[in-house]
Amino acid sequence: MEILVLWFTLLLLSMTANIFMIISIYKSEKLCKNGCTKLIMSFLSSSAFACLCGSVSTTAMLVENSRDEHSKYPDEVWIVLFALNRGAVAAHLSTSSTMALIRMISVVWPVNYRSLNCSSAIYCFIVAPWVYSTVMFVLPLFQVIGVPDPSTYRYKIAEGETNLQKSWRITYILAYILIPFTLIYASYMIVFCKVHGLKRGNGSDGSQDHGLNNRPPISQWQEVVARAALANIIVQTVTYFPMIIGSTLSLGTLFSRICRTIFILQYIFNPVSFVMFSEDYRCACKKVLKCFFPQDSAQSDLLTEMQKMPTKV
Q: What is the pLDDT of residue 130?
């Protein structure tokens, strides 16, 4: 019961953080002019949607635990809830992999990125992950990956599983895991290697070397994307792989609960990462915060005057 309350609290905080970041982007004129910002808003929306589905399932589990044996939810309810969670997580994973692909294009082919940013082709990168997540939602409704078990929050293999059902289950798991992770890791590794190669070709401080190995100087954007890529690789490895292991292998209830808790924490990292690596997003968040917590005009004038006063050495 306590672990369910913890999950619900973390999911609610994560959903609030993602919605706040979406509002901040929407209120920023500078960010809205960028075409790829729509992809970021789709990514944050998928995170908020995954948190919403997770909180609904957690609430259902809390209610289920408080009921007696004769008033439990029917199996159809859990089939739909588990399928919704699978589809929501798939949307989050696929939009994350699409963002990784766009970031790779911005570093490796900056000219193509600028043309993509100003064209309607960016909508293909927005729609494709949601189509993929819809397929990942529909298939569990037919129990192709097993029967949902609310007590362990895992799918268990159906009794008398045929070879065809086994093939469908393995194919679904591979598509659910391998496709997004392959795109994420491959894209971010290419970004990291590209920026590292530019640094080796230039001076150690990023300045141009006019020798035989002369290469273009590293832009601030490439350095920011490289740092974000490294952070995302670490977060994806720490949060997703334990969850995958815990959901596919029977390693005990405690291990499965720890893995899910770590997995939920990554939803909070998504909006925090934008604030960490971008001054534009920090300014957008400050603008929205001022709307919620307006500063008194007299206090604001006093702070302005204090900042203008010379400081004694």
A: 92
